[in-house]
Write a structure and sequence with these properties.
Elements lengths: L1 H20 L10 H50 L2 H30 L2 H28 L2
Length: 145
């Protein structure tokens, strides 16, 4: 009878040892410090991406405005060579374009210091101002040929 009791006890012990060893397969729970660290890293990555997008947009807008300033200088140079009604017409067109150019430059300056939702709003304003100025300048250039 002792043998019949000993066998189940030994079998129970043998099965409980591997079960105790299995506990290390369970992943450790993440602590609040780990969660905060991961959240902070995600925020930093998002901020870095936003800065990169902002820098790229500002760089592109600056190049476009530099090109438009160059075209404006060409128009002024051309107006100096003209006389009569042609000169008067081009001078008026240049006078109409100058405020648009200044407004686009001001919007870009405002954009550089803006953050968050205001930045998105100003970004759209800069894009629109540059687009309108390009169209106006193109019409002016086409009109003097």
């Amino acid at each position: 009878m002792m043998k019949s009791l000993l066998l189940p006890v030994l079998l129970g012990l043998a099965l409980s040892v591997p079960a105790a060893e299995k506990k290390e397969d369970v992943p450790p729970k993440a602590g609040s410090a780990d969660v905060r660290k991961e959240a902070g890293e995600a925020v930093d990555a998002t901020k870095a991406k936003a800065r990169q997008e902002r820098d790229e947009f500002v760089g592109k807008a600056q190049k476009e405005l530099a090109e438009l300033n160059k075209k404006m200088a060409e128009l002024k140079k051309k107006a100096k060579k003209l006389s009569g009604e042609g000169k008067a017409k081009l001078d008026r067109q240049i006078q109409d374009l100058e405020p648009e150019l200044k407004a686009a430059e001001q919007k870009l300056a405002d954009l550089k210091s803006a953050t968050g939702e205001k930045w998105e709003e100003l970004k759209a304003g800069v894009s629109g101002a540059i687009g309108r100025l390009k169209q106006s300048m193109q019409k002016t250039r086409e009109g003097d040929h």
